[in-house]
Amino acid sequence: MTELWLMFSAAFIAATLLPGGSEVLLVALIDNTPEKWLPLVIVATLGNGLGSITSYYLGTLGRFATTPEAMAQGRYRHSIGLLKRYGYWSLLLAWMPLIGDLLCLLAGWLKLPVVKSSIMIFIGKGIRYLLVAALTLHWL
User: Fold this and answer.
1) For residue 25, what pLDDT band results from cuts at 50, 70 and 90?
2) Where would you tag: which of 1, 36, 81, 96 has the fewest CB atoms within 10 A of its CB?
C-alpha cells in the first residue's frame, strides 16, 4: 500500500509543483513489485491527472491576473494558438514535459470545457504510464 501512496504523491507533485520523475519511480516500483504494475499505473494516472486538473483550475484563477491581449501577445502565444485551434483535444499532449503543464494551465485560462478537458488529460497520461509499464515489464 505504501508503494501506491508514494506513486500517487510523486505523480501529483510532478504535474503541479515540481518537475519530477514519476516515470522513473514507476519503473523502480514495477521492477521491485512487478505483480502490482496495474494498480501502480492507475494511481500514477490518477495522481498526475489530478495534478493537471489542479493546474487547469489555477488557470481559471489566472484570468483575474492578466488580460487576454497580454497573453495572446506574450510568450504563451504558440500554446494558446494550439489550444484555440484544436480545443480540448490538445490536452492529449498534457503528458509532455514542460508544454503539458502549460497546456493545462492555459486550458483553464481559456475556459475549455472542464469535463472534456479532464477526459483528454486522463487519456493522455494513462497511455503514457501504460507504455512506461509495458516497456518496463518487457525488459524485466
Assistant:
1) very high
2) 1
Rounding to the nearest 10 degrees, give the CA dihedral for residues 31, 18, 94, 2. 40
pTM as predicted: 0.90
Q: In the structure grid, which three cell numbers stand for residue 54, read together?
A: 489542479
Note the residue count of the chain: 140
Q: For the chain, how many structural domains are there in total?
A: 1
How far apart are alpha carbons 140 and 43 in whole angstroms?
21
Distance between CA atoms of residues 21 and 38, nearest Å: 19
H-type alpha helices, the chain: 2-15, 22-32, 37-62, 68-73, 77-86, 99-109, 114-139
| Grid cell listed for 15 | 504535474
Q: Which domain holds residue 19?
A: 2-139
